[in-house]
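Work Package 4 report. The design task specified in the project plan requires that, given a folded chain encoded as structure tokens, an amino acid be chosen for each position. We show below one input record used in the internal validation round.
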């Protein structure tokens, strides 16, 4: 009997040749979406799944390039995307399902729209046959968000997904940045289609002007060379344009004082002698007074917001206005511009520097000595400061001041909205752009924790501190569970004054101390106990109630980097933000403290 011959191994089939670059690949719409996000440069998405977006989530499971951060609420996803974008300058991405998932993104989208933050929101939608039938979890999110997005798309053909993603990222990041929403019905996600990249963009009429008009720049330079009381009024557009270096060069070339708005903190170093601080309702007296007495305002990437101008009809009455902005709709919207300049701030400032140098070669150099003597007088007479609470409780300003001093200017700080936000703007020293992340135009309470989460994901090697209030913190603190599970070790300083502090301040000043429904119970009943709440959410919980404990707990928090840290700073309930320009009044009526008004007389 002969032995059987060994079984021959099958010959492997030759590998299929890879499709040529740019050749179509057959995929589902959901797979096309994920591939498009990868190709667009997205590295992280913040979101939470639901029925209408499940095909996209199924495809997302196969991606090796995209990190998904599972938030606890869609609002957290939107604010995290905005925090990521503010801190990094890149487009932030959030994902939600249809109906309530999508509507929970409305506030973050409105917030990003007001502050010109590049965010792309992707929402699932009910299948196309159900649209308009009041189907389960149906909402017209494109219609709902039209007023608060730069643009939005309803995708009805899966072949259009790559082009739509590419256009959305382009729209969000170019010109005046802003949020863009893409709504994709479930049947479009499930349909078979082809994927090719890069797609051809079709954005007829969208051509943002980045290069300024030379004649307008030269006229601005002429005004700079003849003004005796000029001010550089710097808004968030300078930071978004990456123009901090150019701004400093212009300021030092001209010797002009600089004020930086809430959204521009860090665009010009606080330590620089020419920096007068933040203008507006809670700005420094020197910054507010300088703008009121200026004979020339050079507004760069700023929008003359009411919180800066006070009563518009009495704002900077003697000033000629040069207004540079990439959005032509902002020029002369609130204050008429004598010299309008449409363009990207980086290019505008660069060309303005050259035009000013040309003026200098003609010996047109203004003498600003008297102006700086006046500015230094205001700065010395009305410095930022605070009083300790008379009842011996902890000063919130001291807490924030010490956080800034111990943590330093290389960290990223996120803030909620209210008193603590203003103190964070006043008492933390910012030396670099994109280091103060907050909600400016919309003033969204609850921004700090998810905003800090997004910033930390984008900049994992940076320390990220959320400076929050006890009111704001209770709106979005569930995202600390996200941070704990996803290894996002942010620090949260809760300025716990037991109240809705800014509302209480107004009730103190303007409502005869009638404290209607502003006591949160976090002092009286310690509900919730923020230390125990932090521990329940997987964080380290700490507390400080006295001056001597502040440095100790901040230092301890800085040493912990394997999970989030929450510090409950129990502070006095009646601390107030000064200076202050009351709503409806002019900047000449700024109060340096309650009942004390600086007088900006001609002889002052």
């Amino acid at each position: 009997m002969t032995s059987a011959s060994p079984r021959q191994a099958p010959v492997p089939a030759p590998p299929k040749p890879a499709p040529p670059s740019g050749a179509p690949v057959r995929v589902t719409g959901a797979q096309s979406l994920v591939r498009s996000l990868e190709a667009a440069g997205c590295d992280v998405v913040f979101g939470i799944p639901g029925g209408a977006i499940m095909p996209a989530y199924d495809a997302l499971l196969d991606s090796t390039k995209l990190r998904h951060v599972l938030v606890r609420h869609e609002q957290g996803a939107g604010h995290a995307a905005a925090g990521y974008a503010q801190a990094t300058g890149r487009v932030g991405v959030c994902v939600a399902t249809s109906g309530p998932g999508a509507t929970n993104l409305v506030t973050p989208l409105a917030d990003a729209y007001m502050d010109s933050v590049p965010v792309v929101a992707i929402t699932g939608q009910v299948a196309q046959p159900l649209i308009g039938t009041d189907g389960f979890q149906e909402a017209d999110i494109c219609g709902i968000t039209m007023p608060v997005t730069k643009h939005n798309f309803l995708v009805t053909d899966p072949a259009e997904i790559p082009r739509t993603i590419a256009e959305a990222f382009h729209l969000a990041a170019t010109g005046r940045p802003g949020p863009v929403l893409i709504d994709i019905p479930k049947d479009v996600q499930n349909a078979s289609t082809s994927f090719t990249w890069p797609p051809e963009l079709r954005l007829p009429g969208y051509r943002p002007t980045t290069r300024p008009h030379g004649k307008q720049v030269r006229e601005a330079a002429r005004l700079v060379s003849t003004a005796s009381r000029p001010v550089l009024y710097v808004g968030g557009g300078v930071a978004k344009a990456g123009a901090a270096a150019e701004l400093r060069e212009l300021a030092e070339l001209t010797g002009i004082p600089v004020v930086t708005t809430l959204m521009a903190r860090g665009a010009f170093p606080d330590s620089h002698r020419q920096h007068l601080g933040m203008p507006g309702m809670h700005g420094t007296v020197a910054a507010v007074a300088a703008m009121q007495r200026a004979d020339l305002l050079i507004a760069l990437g700023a929008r003359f917001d009411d919180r800066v101008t006070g009563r518009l009809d009495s704002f900077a009455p003697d000033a000629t206005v040069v207004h540079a902005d990439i959005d032509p709709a902002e020029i002369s919207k609130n204050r008429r511009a004598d010299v309008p300049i449409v363009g990207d701030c980086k290019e505008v400032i660069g060309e303005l520097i050259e035009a000013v140098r040309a003026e200098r070669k003609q010996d047109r150099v203004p003498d600003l000595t008297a102006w700086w003597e006046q500015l230094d007088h205001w700065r010395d007479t009305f410095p930022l400061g605070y009083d300790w609470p008379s009842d011996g409780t902890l000063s919130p300003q001291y807490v924030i001041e010490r956080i800034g001093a111990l943590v330093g200017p290389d960290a990223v700080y996120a803030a909620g909205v209210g008193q603590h936000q203003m103190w964070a703007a006043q008492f933390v020293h910012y030396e670099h752009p994109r280091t103060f992340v907050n909600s400016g135009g919309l003033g969204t309470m609850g921004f700090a924790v998810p905003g800090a989460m997004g910033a930390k994901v984008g900049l994992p090697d940076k320390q990220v501190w959320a400076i929050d209030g006890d009111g704001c913190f209770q709106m979005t603190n569930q995202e600390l569970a996200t941070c704990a599970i996803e290894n996002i070790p942010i620090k949260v300083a809760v300025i716990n004054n037991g109240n809705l502090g800014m509302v209480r301040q107004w009730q103190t000043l303007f409502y005869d101390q009638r404290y209607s429904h502003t006591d949160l119970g976090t002092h009286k009943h310690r509900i919730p106990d923020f230390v125990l709440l932090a521990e329940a959410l997987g964080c380290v919980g700490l507390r400080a109630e006295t001056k001597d404990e502040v440095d100790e707990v901040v230092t301890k928090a800085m040493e912990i980097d394997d999970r989030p840290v929450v510090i409950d700073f129990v502070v006095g309930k009646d601390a107030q933000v000064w200076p202050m320009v009351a709503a409806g009044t002019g900047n000449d009526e700024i109060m340096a403290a309650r009942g004390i008004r600086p007088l900006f007389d001609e002889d002052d």
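The longest strand covers residues 119-125. Validation will be extended to a larger panel in the next phase.
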